[in-house]
Structure prediction request, 109 residues.
Amino acid sequence: MQILNQLTIEESERKEIFLEILSDKYCRLILESIMNTPKSAIEISRDKEIPLSTVYRRIQQLHDSHMIRTSGIITDEGKRLFLYKSKIKEVNTRFYDGKITVDVVFNKN
Prediction:
């Protein structure tokens, strides 16, 4: 069922991936950090006091699961800088009568 920018995840494997990612405290901290403003990995690391190597590993996980958007810019020094922003604003889960439902509310641009 899809309503405006909400999606109910039907596929069992996809539900498990979402739940696994959301159970990881670093993934949650990263998503929180980039919910409203795109940030670089270094900014996320400083903002949430997460080791940079951990930020990069979790960003890869979040990217592979289509939970973040990546964009890039070229700095004044000519270096490429990647910025990350959460695609999701909210995730609601429910466990009832032996079944799990996962509803995702998408982030606006």
